[in-house]
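Q: My labmate handed me this sequence with no annotations at all. I'd like to see what the chain might look like in three dimensions before we decide whether it's worth expressing. Could you predict it?
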Amino acid sequence: MTETTDNDTTMRAMSQDVFGGPEVLKEVELPRPAPGPSEILVRVHAAGVNPTDWKNRAFGLWNPDPLPVLGWDVSGVVEAVGLGVTVFKPGDEVFGMLPYPHLAGAYAEFAKAPARSFAHKPADIDHVQAGALPLAALTAYQALVDTADVQPGQRVLIHAAAGGVGHLAVQIAKARGAYVIGTASAGKHELLRELGADELIDYRTTDFAEEVRDVDVVLDTLAGDVRTRSLDVLREGGTLVSILPVGFEDDARKAAELGVKLEVLLVEADHGGMRAIADLVARGQLRARVDATFPLVEVAKAHAHGETDRTTGKIVLTVR
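A: Here is what I predict for the chain of 320 residues:
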């Protein structure tokens, strides 16, 4: 694991000053942040890596300039609390998502954020597991629970079901009592069955649009043609939630014509959602599948690994 600095005024972090490939990420020394009112400072133990990380590294996505420090997933220990914080104390183990999309900063020894971006880390998982969860699990939870309000017995189709968001969405949908259909390559079907998927479609050999009908909820993690054709498998009144809020205007018109709903979701920092995720973990209904771990200083290798599009589950940086 990455060694930590002894200096109490600075910290090590991975930064970039230009957009580009993984090689633009460099180790730097930065001032250690101090928590302001309603904020906490977390000593980072693990930081999840998500596709939005390498997209922001490569071309900005939501930000016109390179973010000084990337990363939104944090698991660690509270180092200090700001004025007015009552929900956490120094020494508490916490996990959460830094406010997305602008307030990144997880690729560092310390990260600060509004206190209610976090929840107490479940005691029965380590920081690597906890660091894998926040952004992807919140995305799945906000899509399936807050937006689509999945109910017992409903049919839910999850695209890229073995991906970072997908494999957590399978578990959340099952915890809600849904019948879960997933698309994934055949080699990942066994894992998805273990996670609770009821029906699986190998997207390489089978057109899901010809196999699936009368779906109540679709979780779209791919956009493009997959999102467009997914509207056709919904029952009247059904809901498609897309987590890729780009190029959806034509799909919105098609949804209106079909009598179905298209919702476009951008994940938000969410104390209530993190507490719900922690509760699912504590009940044994939610676990992250960690595909690979890398030390913080090898974040470029982590990005290169993620960009192969061959990962199953999540990539995590070990910081401490």
